[in-house]
Every structure is written in C-alpha cells, then in structure tokens.
C-alpha cells in the first residue's frame, strides 16, 4: 500500500518537473529529498529520461532527410543571397548618399517647425503676460507718483483679470504675493496723508475761518449797500430778519464752491477777491482716502476714524484760552477756529457721499454751540470795557451771520447777545457814573457867562434851551444853569447812542430797539444819574449857593426830558405816542434830586441857625433886660437876609418853604434854648431880653425876606413863642387859666407843660435872688402868686391827662 502511494507521488513529481519552469523546480526536488525514497525516485527519473531520449531519437530519424534537403537548398541560395546582399548594400550606399542632403533639409525643416511652434507659443504666452507687465508697470508708476486710488483700481484689475489669464509663472506668483502688501501700503499711506490733512486743517482752521468771516462781511456789506440804494435813505435803517431756525439751503448759500485739497499758501490783497475754502484747503487726501477705503471694503472704519478725529479736534477748537477775555483778538481767533472747523465740515458734507451726514454735523454744531455760548458767558463776564463788549458783540454777530450762511441755526447766539445786553448796560452805567461824577466834581455851580452869539449858539446846540427874554438881552449875559447841564445832557445822548450801537444787527424790530433804549436810559436816569446827583447834594462842604444852582440845573434838565423822548424816537423811527412805548423817568429823577437839594437847603439853613444859636450867651438871672437885640441874633438875621437874596432864581415855593422852615426852626430852637435843662432859673429881666430878640425875629419875618407870602403868614412861625412870652411878660395868668381850651383863647398856642416848666425856673429865681424876699410883702405876695399859678397849672395838666 505504501509503495503504491510512493510510486504515485513520484509520478506526480515527475509530471510537475516536466510541466514546470526550471526556475521553480527547487521546492519540488526538495520534497523528493525530504522523503525516504529518493533512490527509487532516481531510478524512475532515469527511466523517464531514457523514454524521452528514445522519442527524440525517433523524431530526429523521421525528419532527418528533410533537414538534409533543406541544407542543400540553403547552400544553393547562399550565393544568390551574397549577390543580393551586395546589390542591397550598393543600393543602400547610394540611397544613403542621396538621402544625406534630404535628411539635412528635413532636420532643418524640423528645427524650423519647432522654432515656429515655440515662437507661436511664446507669442501667445507673451500676449497674456504683457498686459500683466504693463499693468504692473502702470501700478509702479502710480505708486511712485502717489496716485493711490488709481493704483488701487489698477491693482484690482491686475488681480482679478490679468494674472488669471497670464498663467502660473513665477513672476505672476511674486506679483500675486505682493498684492496684499501693496494694498496695505496704499491704505497706510493714504491714512498717513489723511492724518497730515487733519493736522494741517487743525493748525490752519484759524486762517480758514478768518477768510470765511471776511467773505461773509463783504457779502453783508454788499447786501446792505444794495438795500440802502433800493430803499429810502432817511434816518438810520434797522434791519429785522426772522431768525426762525429754518435752515437755509447750504448748497446754494455756501460761499465756498466744491473743489478738491492740505492748506495752500494763497496770497491776496484787501482789494482782491477773498479766496474761498477751496483756495485755501486741499481736500484731495480726504477724497482719496475715502475712495481707497471704499474700494478696500473698509469704508465704515474710515468714516468712524474720521468722525472720531474731528470730534477730538472740535473739543480742542472749542477750548478757549484762559486770557481770551483780555483782548478782542483772543475772541477773534476763537471764532475763526470754530468757523474754519465747520466750513471744512460743510464742504466735506457736500462733496462726499456719506462721509459725514447732516445729522452728524447738526449734532456736532449743537455741542459746539452750547460750549461756545458757555465760554462766551464766562469770559465776557470778566469784561469791564464797554468798547470791548461792543466790539465783541459785532464779532459775535459776524460769527453768527457767517455760520448762518452755511445753514447752521444761530438763534441761541442772538439770545445770548440779548443777555449780554444787560451786562453791557451795567458796564455803561458804571462808565457813565464816573463821567457824571467827574462833571459834577469839576462844575463851578455858577451860571454860564455868554460873551458872544456864537458861544450862545454852541451851548444851545448842546442843550435845548429856549428863553425869549434872555435872547433879547444884550451880550454879555448869563445862562441860568451851570456847565454841568449841557454836559450831562450830552452824556445822556451819548449813552443812548451807545445803547443803539449794541442793538444794531441783532435782528430786532424798531419797537424792540426803542423799548430797550428807553429802559436802559431809565436805568441811567433813575439809578446812575440820580445817585450822582444825590452824591453831589450830600457831599461835605456843599454850600447853599451850590444847592441853589443844583435846583436850577435839575429844573432845566427836567424840562429837557421831552427832547430826549423825541431824540430816541428820531433814531429808532418809532413814534413817541406808540401805545406800548416806555416813558422816560427823567422828570421824576430830576424832581427827586431837586427835592433832595431842597431838603438839603433846609437842613443846611437849620444847621447854620444852630451854629449861630450856639453863640447865644444869655444872662438868665439878669434883673433888667437890654434895649437891643443880642449880637448873635443880629448876625443871624443878617445871614438869613443875604441867603434869601440868593434864592431869587429859585422857584417861588422853594424859597418860601426854605424861609418858613428857617423861621420855624429858629422859633423852635429859641424855645428849646429857653427850656433846656441846663438853664435852671430864669429871671424876668432875662425874659425881657429874650422878648427883644424874638421881636427882632418878628421884624425880619414881617419885612418879607422872600416875596410871595400873604400878609403876616411868616409871623405864624413865631406865634408859639410870642404867646408864651406875652403870657409871662404881661403876667396874664387869669385869662390863660380861664380861657384854656377854648378856640378863642388868647394864649391858645401855649402848652401848660411849657408854661409850668418856665414858671418853675422863675420860682427858683425868685427864691434865690433875694434872700430877704420873705421880709418884703410884695415879694411874698409874688411868690405866693407863683405858687398858686403853679398849683393851678398842675391841676390843669392833671385834669387834661385824666
């Protein structure tokens, strides 16, 4: 069984060897040697080889004759083949010789065809590359000449159209890699130019604003000239415009046209046309940067940056210098910077699409307006010079008109000017207070002497004075008032002119201007001039003659008030009889001053009388009175006579009141002198001397030192004293006590208290004068009588009190 399997295996291996490539029989032979029957296999292999050899031999014997025949035929053909080979070789040699030129031509043709193809390919490639190179050259030239916006457009065409068509060449790759860097460079450079532009307009906004305000001023002057030519040229023309806040069309009213632009150095003469903003400012950096950022798709970033920087510049522009209030030039620079800032913003608004919008500009203007008004209120409050305030007002009006020409609402500025009007009025009042005081201090309080008609006309031109009687008098003559009347009147007119100057160009109606001037003039009259007059009246060492002249002066000033009314109406073109017209208070002012002067005259007279009374030296214990009036009283009467002689120019009632007041004060003072506590005893002789003095006073009153008194009216000033002295000198106590309290009483003006006080002094005198009076019957009777009268007076007083 095992041998059969071995034989089958060997048979399989032999078939495998016969059918397998010799390179792959290694594993087959290895399986033979791995087995135990390789000897048997070798025997079978040798037997198989012998079988194949026998088959080969049989095959060779079968085909040998044919092989021999074939060899014989082949040997016969060899000669022919050799001949044919020689012919072919010869023919080939000829063909090779003849084909060498053709091959050369063909090779040349091939080279030409190759060159032609290469040239065509090169031309085609260059056709696509040349636009790229030309575009890149153009880009480099634009970058070199700083034409960044066209360069950005060129860069966009290069990237989107030229480079994709050119293909993937190395230079194209380099160009494509440089494009982002070029864009960044263009953006950075344009932003740098914008920063330079912003810095430049910040530094030169003063010059821009100055030019804009000059142009507005020229335009306003032209408009006023045209208006004055078209309208009637009578009087001062007051312009009224409705500042309603409605915006003017900025495009039409803008004094500056649109044009590109840093700051350009433009020289101009005053006679030349004033340049506009486009002549001073190069706006191209803004436009260029805006276009560049728009192309780069980053417009929002640019807009935000521009607005942020301009807001910062606005805050710097709106910050005034600390000493701005000292000079008008400080205010002018401040306004120029603000106007320059908004002229630039207005130009940007109208020459760009959306870089700044109307809402942004209006918001910026509202902020600026509030800060400007606050700064002006603060700094103008430090000003004490009315001329500077007036110049500032004119500058603010020009500032407002300039910006209003660009469509900015400026109502708040005019409202602030109306507020400043009160401050201006206060400063004017302070200035005129000094002027009035200087006039009053320098006045000689004497009537003005006039030596010639020219001098008379000169004064009449300063002050509206009319006196037909005085005009008929020959020269030289004297005007009734002193120098301060025409000077004060002229100063009042100057004040009115100053108020009118401030009210001009404030867009106020004639009625409003008239009302403002009248109110300010009333303040001048009732406050400033009134205080100055009171000062002149109340100051020390003012004499009665000066007070009399003040009364005369104020009388004439009072009479001139209606001329001031007409003067104001003339310069404001408002009729004086307008329903709502404010009336001047000059009449009451001068009346009050005159009354104060009158009171001062009365006071001074009384003080003079008191000074004379201090010289009184009565001997209250005298036994017998003198027959003449006391020296002090004679001097006093002489003084009163000379004084009242000066009162001839005063109104009659003033002189009469002064005379009556002096007589009453003299009577009262004499009574007080008689009853004062220091006088402990009064003799009948002293009363007789006192009675002589009172009679002297009555003679003075009866003589009529001042005309106008009816009958013995002036004597009534001494009636109390007269009845008291008559009661004591006539010793008519029975009549007094019997008739006391009746209207027909002879001694109606005698007060029982006064009589009792004087009687007590006389009782003491009777007791002390004669130590032996008790031994004399008549003295004892008199003393008893005095005691009886004293007792009756006390009972009378007690009854009246009850």
Automatic annotation (TrEMBL):
- Output the InterPro entries linked to this UniProt entry: EXOC6/Sec15, EXOC6/Sec15_C, EXOC6/Sec15_C_dom1, EXOC6_Sec15_N, EXOC6PINT-1/Sec15/Tip20_C_dom2
For region Disordered, the annotated ranges are 225-260
What Pfam family does this protein match (any one)?
EXOC6_Sec15_N
Q: Which Gene Ontology BP annotations are present?
A: Golgi to plasma membrane transport; intracellular protein transport; vesicle tethering involved in exocytosis
- Keyword Protein biosynthesis included in the entry's annotation: no
The protein's role, per its UniProt record:
Component of the exocyst complex involved in the docking of exocytic vesicles with fusion sites on the plasma membrane.
Q: What is this protein called?
A: Exocyst complex component
User: Where's the Exocyst complex component EXOC6/Sec15 N-terminal domain?
Assistant: 44-213
Annotated signal sequence range: none
Q: Keywords, A to Z?
A: Exocytosis, Transport
Family per UniProt? Belongs to the SEC15 family.
- Residues in Exocyst complex subunit EXOC6/Sec15 C-terminal domain copies: 412-761
The organism's lineage is:
Eukaryota, Metazoa, Chordata, Craniata, Vertebrata
Q: Which GO terms describe its cellular component?
A: exocyst; plasma membrane
Instruction: Output the PANTHER family linked to this UniProt entry.
Output: EXOCYST COMPLEX COMPONENT 6B (PTHR12702:SF3), SEC15 (PTHR12702)
């Amino acid at each position: 069984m095992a041998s059969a399997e071995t034989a089958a295996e060997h048979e399989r291996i032999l078939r495998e060897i016969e059918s397998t490539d010799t390179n792959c029989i290694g594993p087959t032979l290895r399986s033979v040697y791995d087995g135990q029957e390789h000897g048997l296999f070798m025997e079978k292999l040798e037997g198989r080889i012998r079988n194949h050899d026998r088959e080969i031999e049989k095959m060779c014997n079968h085909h040998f004759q044919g092989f021999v025949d074939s060899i014989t035929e082949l040997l016969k053909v060899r000669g022919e083949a050799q001949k044919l080979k020689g012919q072919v070789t010869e023919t080939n040699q000829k063909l090779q010789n003849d084909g060498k030129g053709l091959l050369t031509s063909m090779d040349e043709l091939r080279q030409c065809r190759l060159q032609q193809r290469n040239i065509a390919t090169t031309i085609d490639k260059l056709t696509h590359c040349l636009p790229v190179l030309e575009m890149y050259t153009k880009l480099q030239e634009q970058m070199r000449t700083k034409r960044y916006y066209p360069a950005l457009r060129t860069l966009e065409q290069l990237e989107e159209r030229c480079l994709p068509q050119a293909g993937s060449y190395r230079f194209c790759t380099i160009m494509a890699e440089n494009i982002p860097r070029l864009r960044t460079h263009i953006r950075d450079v344009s932003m740098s130019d914008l920063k330079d532009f912003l810095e430049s307009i910040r530094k030169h906004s003063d010059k821009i604003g100055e030019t804009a305000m000059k142009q507005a001023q020229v335009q306003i002057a032209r408009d006023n000239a045209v208006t004055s030519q078209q309208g009637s040229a009578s009087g001062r023309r007051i312009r009224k415009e409705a500042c309603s806040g409605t915006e003017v069309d900025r495009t039409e009213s803008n004094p500056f046209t649109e044009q590109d632009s840093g700051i350009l150095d433009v020289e101009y003469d005053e006679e030349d046309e004033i340049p506009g903003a486009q002549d001073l400012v190069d706006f191209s950096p803004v436009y260029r940067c805006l276009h560049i950022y728009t192309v780069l798709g980053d417009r929002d970033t640019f807009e935000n940056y521009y607005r942020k920087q301009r807001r910062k510049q606005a805050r710097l522009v709106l910050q005034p210098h600390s000493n701005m209030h000292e000079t008008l030039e400080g205010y002018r620079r401040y306004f120029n910077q603000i106007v320059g800032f908004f002229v630039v913003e207005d130009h940007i608004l109208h020459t760009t699409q959306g870089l700044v919008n109307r809402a942004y500009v209006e918001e910026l203007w509202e902020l600026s307006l509030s800060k400007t008004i606050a700064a002006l209120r603060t700094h103008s409050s430090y000003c004490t010079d009315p001329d500077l305030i007036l110049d500032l007002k004119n500058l603010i009006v020009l500032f407002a008109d300039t910006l209003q020409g660009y469509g900015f609402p400026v109502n708040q500025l005019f409202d602030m000017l109306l507020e400043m009007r009160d401050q201006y009025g206060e400063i004017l009042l302070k200035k005129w207070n000094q002027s009035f005081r200087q006039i009053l201090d320098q006045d000689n309080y004497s009537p003005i002497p006039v030596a010639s008609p020219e001098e008379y006309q000169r004064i009449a031109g300063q002050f509206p004075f009319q006196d037909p009687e005085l005009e008929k008098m020959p020269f030289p003559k004297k005007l009734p008032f002193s120098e301060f009347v025409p000077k004060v009147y002229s100063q009042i007119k100057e004040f009115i002119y100053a108020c009118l100057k401030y009210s001009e160009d404030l867009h106020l109606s004639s009625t409003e201007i008239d009302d403002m001037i009248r109110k300010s003039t009333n303040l001048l009259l009732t406050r400033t001039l009134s205080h100055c007059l009171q000062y002149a009246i109340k100051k020390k060492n003012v004499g009665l003659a000066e007070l009399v002249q003040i009364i005369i002066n104020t009388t004439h000033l009072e009479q001139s008030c209606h001329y001031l009314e007409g003067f104001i109406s003339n310069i404001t073109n408002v009729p004086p009889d307008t329903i709502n017209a404010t009336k001047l208070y000059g009449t009451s002012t001068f009346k009050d001053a005159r009354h104060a002067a009158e009171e001062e005259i009365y006071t001074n007279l009384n003080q003079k009388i008191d000074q004379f009374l201090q010289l009184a030296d009565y001997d209250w214990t005298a036994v017998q009175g003198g027959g003449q009036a006391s020296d002090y009283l004679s001097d006093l009467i002489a003084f009163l006579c000379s004084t009242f002689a000066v009162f001839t120019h005063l109104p009659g009632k003033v002189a009469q009141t002064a005379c009556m007041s002096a007589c009453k004060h003299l009577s009262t003072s004499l009574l007080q002198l008689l009853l004062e506590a220091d006088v402990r005893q009064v003799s009948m002789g002293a009363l007789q001397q006192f009675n002589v003095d009172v009679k002297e006073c009555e003679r003075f009153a009866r003589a009529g030192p001042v005309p106008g008194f009816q009958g013995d009216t002036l004597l009534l000033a001494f009636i109390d004293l007269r009845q008291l002295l008559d009661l004591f000198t006539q010793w008519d106590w029975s009549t007094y006590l019997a008739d006391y309290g009746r209207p027909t009483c002879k001694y109606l003006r005698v007060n029982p208290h006064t009589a009792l006080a004087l009687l007590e002094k006389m009782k003491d005198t009777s007791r002390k004068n004669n130590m032996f009076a008790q031994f004399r019957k008549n003295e004892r009777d008199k003393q008893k009588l005095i005691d009886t009268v004293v007792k009756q007076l006390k009972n009378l007083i007690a009854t009246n009190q009850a």
